[in-house]
Design brief:
15 helices, single chain, 15% strand, 391 residues
């Protein structure tokens, strides 16, 4: 009999060091607000991961440790079963975080001043990491058409000359778009033709909703396979962001040899004891938990969309095709940036990510994290309705 997991359980995170709760005063100026911002969930880490860690903790020495043979095997089997992607062990390397991996690729394959393409509105570290590493951001802004984001290939062709790197969010964050194979293949063709290396951030790849299916970028064409570095992790799916467990996949021999040799030379590709154990447990035993979690997330998304449509029609919900992040179009409220943030923080007493941080096209939007028990969702939406009604 399959185990039934409890996603309604309320867990107090304040005082645990959680960024989501314990950074509220610093970032939002007050603590008496509901945290629905940073992208981790409020569900307890699955028991099979905790059990694997507890077993290792019973041994009193944490010295230099080899990875279990099951570590890469679990990644290979997970990707084959879930995404139909046939990986080889030597294609895989641990990386100490997806954003860190992006920065490593940027520093190895480009030099200060080089141009890097991103697709705003998009996960803000793409821009921040590029700028702080002295590279130049080039925007290929997405188009919002009938409530879904589309890539603007005509504009991309006009700005890609001379660029060195393209950072792709696949699935897209914050819009929740699961990019179709044809779209990714077209992107791969343009980047390959212009000698622009693609980084595909696929950290939300295991969280496709409503029957959507994630397509790994490297699988869409020979150009994509030969000209891409993919980053993924179990961290979003299994709520273990605090245990850094990310990995890279590079199918191309030349590209892989270059980058992985550099990682090894700098001892950046060795996971900690707990990173490898948590990842292996997640990918070996996690399918049923993931399935139940995603069903719960779908119910949360549906509730948010229905409630807002019926009670706050001036806000439009961009329903995600993947992940637990809901993109709210608040432009009909006709508020400037400061007023919109104040409405959520001071009037509705909610901490969300404001859309402007995601770059051009994010103005007037807010990103809501609904990876939380339904009781929190209901409370938050009630507070939001009350605040909007007073406008």
């Amino acid at each position: 009999m399959e185990k039934k997991y409890d996603f309604d359980k309320i867990i107090e995170r304040r005082g645990s060091g959680a960024v989501k709760t314990d950074a509220l005063k610093f970032l939002y100026g007050r603590e008496d607000i509901m945290p629905m911002w940073v992208a981790d969930m409020d569900f307890e880490t699955p028991d099979f991961i905790l059990d694997a860690l507890k077993i290792r903790l019973e041994h009193p020495i944490f010295g230099y440790t080899r990875n279990s043979p099951g570590y890469k095997k679990s990644i290979v089997e997970w990707n084959k079963n879930l995404h139909g992607w046939d990986l080889k062990n030597d294609w895989i390397a641990f990386i100490p975080g997806v954003v860190k991996g992006i920065a490593m690729v940027m520093n190895y394959f480009t030099k200060p001043g080089d141009k890097v393409i991103i697709q705003p509105p998009v996960y803000h570290p793409f821009r921040i990491t590029t700028e702080k590493n002295g590279r130049t951001v080039v925007n290929n802004q997405l188009k919002l058409v009938a409530g879904q984001y589309q890539m603007d290939f005509e504009q991309l062709e006009s700005v890609i000359k001379g660029c060195k790197l393209f950072i792709l969010s696949n699935p897209h964050n914050p819009g929740g778009r699961v990019w179709r194979k044809e779209t990714l293949a077209h992107l791969a063709e343009i980047c390959y033709k212009n000698n622009v290396l693609v980084i595909s951030d696929e950290i939300h790849s295991d969280m496709a909703l409503y029957g959507n299916r994630h397509t790994p970028f490297a699988t869409v064409s020979d150009e994509a396979r030969r000209n891409s570095i993919t980053f993924a992790a179990p961290s979003k799916t299994f709520n273990i962001a605090g245990i850094v467990s990310s990995y890279a996949v590079i199918p191309d021999d030349k590209l892989r040899h270059e980058f992985y040799s550099w990682l090894e030379a700098n001892e950046l590709s060795d996971p900690s004891i707990f990173s490898a154990i948590a990842a292996e447990a997640a990918f070996t035993y996690g399918y049923e938990w993931m399935k139940q979690m995603l069903a719960y997330i779908e119910k949360n998304v549906n509730y948010v969309a229905d409630f807002i449509d019926e009670n706050i029609p001036t806000i439009k919900v961009i329903k995600p095709e993947a992940s637990f992040l809901v993109w709210l179009d608040c432009r009909e409220l006709d508020l400037n940036h400061e007023q919109l943030v104040s409405l959520f923080v001071n009037d509705a007493r909610l901490a969300l990510n404001d859309g402007e941080m995601f770059g051009p096209g994010g103005e007037g939007f807010m990103r809501m994290n609904i990876g939380t028990p339904m009781s929190n969702i209901k409370l938050a939406l009630g507070q939001l309705k009350e605040a909007v009604d007073k406008l």
